[in-house]
Amino acid sequence: MAGNLYLIPVPIGGDNFRDTIPENVIAITLSLRYFIVENIRSARRYLRLIDRSFPVDSTRFFQLDEHTPESEISSFLEPLSNGHDTGLMSEAGIPGIADPGAGLIRLAHKMNIKVIPLSGPSSVFLALAASGLNGQKFTFHGYLPVKDDRLKARIRELEKLSAGGETQIFMETPYRAGRLLTYLLETCNSGTHLCIAADITLPTEQILTRKISEWRKNIPDFKDRLIVFLLNAG
Asked: What is the CATH number of the domain that holds 73?
């Protein structure tokens, strides 16, 4: 009988994991000895954080990131085929959401392996819930283009898509978030709503929804912060 594939949530940031990770999820995580992770070093660090005595040296880890060859992914599921429960762990948040784990999950379904999602924080969905923007129709786009001309064109495209009421969600690395905000304020129409969700679940959390015209009057400094952007012109 095949093992279960547990989707293990990880805190978005900070060390106080009990603020966002339920006790039953911690218990399941600590019971596993096979993990498929985005980064082995940080996964080991997290397991030792929730239990200093966790046997990381006798636990098997498979690294699954954006550079992992597709041909290797099926081998990560061998412990499951042999009856061992296994955890899929993201760097932050819930696996499969803004995360490279979707392909492995799809393969697990193909192999009739039971996939069990566990409750935990997701910056995308927490930002959407707190934004006041349309949560019935939305699209998550991940990261936008870096080059100036492509970035401006993409922002215009997303604003146009949002005119029908569908919320457009995207994110940026902390060191480029301020630059993206500048382009949003320069490119979008005054009446378009923009939500900036910074440092979700952290003590420095700040989630604000304003019209572009209002943001232009008071441009905040979001340098070096984890940010999810939500756009809606409807």
From this structure: 3.40.1010.10
